[in-house]
């Protein structure tokens, strides 16, 4: 992540995902991305934002044709305090958002997600989040269909005091 202000942050990430498949070719994928996170509301108890990202996906299939394409992701979301003491150890917060994906190689929005979750501030350096994604997919000319249920357990770990508080809420 690059420098930020109270209104926006510029993001840059390089992901590598390796999938070891039993009955189809293994996949080694690289996803360099850049993004912009705009804040509409950002205070001690509520964050309302838009996170737009452009990914360049490079998929290396063992024994099959490789794929490269751009994918645009746009997430509109909120994080909100559920307890009186927001952003302090022991505090709970909620997460809700909607995200759409657009693939440039297919000229289609082929994926959408609704997400909800619960976060817990373990300490100034650690947070835990349990998140549920309701995923919808479609092919060209078709409507979105509910296809996947995704559960994630995230641990956010900071090396500096105040880093997590600055990323989630105005501190």
Automatic annotation (TrEMBL):
<protein>
    <recommendedName>
        <fullName>DUF2490 domain-containing protein</fullName>
    </recommendedName>
</protein>
<dbReference type="InterPro" id="IPR019619">
    <property type="entry name" value="DUF2490"/>
</dbReference>
<dbReference type="Pfam" id="PF10677">
    <property type="entry name" value="DUF2490"/>
</dbReference>
């Amino acid at each position: 992540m690059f420098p930020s202000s109270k209104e926006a942050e510029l993001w840059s990430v390089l992901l590598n995902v390796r999938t070891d498949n039993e009955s189809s070719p293994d996949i080694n994928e690289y996803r360099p991305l850049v993004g912009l996170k705009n804040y509409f509301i950002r205070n001690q108890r509520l964050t309302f934002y838009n996170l737009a990202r452009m990914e360049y996906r490079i998929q290396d299939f063992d024994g099959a044709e490789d794929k490269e394409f751009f994918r645009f992701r746009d997430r509109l979301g909120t994080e909100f305090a559920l307890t009186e003491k927001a952003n302090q150890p022991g505090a709970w917060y909620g997460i809700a958002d909607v995200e759409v994906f657009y693939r440039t190689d297919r000229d289609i929005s082929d994926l959408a997600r609704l997400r909800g979750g619960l976060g817990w501030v373990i300490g100034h350096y650690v947070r835990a989040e349990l998140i549920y994604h309701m995923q919808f997919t479609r092919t060209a000319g078709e409507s979105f269909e509910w296809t996947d249920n995704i559960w994630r357990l995230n641990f956010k770990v900071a090396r500096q005091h105040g880093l997590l508080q600055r990323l989630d809420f105005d501190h």
